[in-house]
Amino acid sequence: MRSADRELVLEAVKQEGIALFYADDSLKADREVVLAAVNQDGSALEYASDSLKADQEVVLAAVNQNSNALEYVADSIKGRIAESIAI
């Protein structure tokens, strides 16, 4: 993946998080890109890599932006996340 392509996608997801859908798989696993996407639209978590769906910081950013993103959180941390947002 070229650096210019990454920067283009990063700018796109900052404007429309759901644009992560169109990103290359390598960018769906890029923590900075995914954080930018979920900060703009939490539901973009649906298109993140499985490893980032289990990343607490990424998941909390997504769920804080859009509580419906909880459905895309990895099962391994879903209970912990649901508890932390209920407090």
Describe the structure.
With 87 residues, this protein is an all-alpha fold. The chain has one domain (3-86). The chain is 56% helix and 0% strand. The chain is built from five helices and no strands. The protein has helices at 3-15, 25-28, 31-40, 56-65, 75-86. Helix 1 (3-15) runs parallel beside helix 3 (31-40) and helix 3 (31-40) runs parallel beside helix 4 (56-65). The protein is elongated, with a radius of gyration of 12 Å. The mean pLDDT is 94.
Please name the defining characteristics of this protein.
mainly alpha
Count of helical segments? 5
- Taken together, the total number of domains comes to 1
Oligomer: single chain
Helix fraction by DSSP (H/I, runs of at least 4) = 55-70%
Tell how many strands the DSSP assignment holds.
0
* Secondary structure category: mainly alpha
Uncertain stretches:
none
Q: For the residues shown, what is the average pLDDT?
A: 94
Main sheet? none
Distance between the termini: 41 Å
N-to-C SSE string, H for helix and E for strand:
HHHHH
Element layout with pairings:
Elements lengths: L2 H13 L9 H4 L2 H10 L15 H10 L9 H12 L1
Helix pairs in contact: 1-3, 3-4
Brief summary:
The protein contains five helices and no strands.
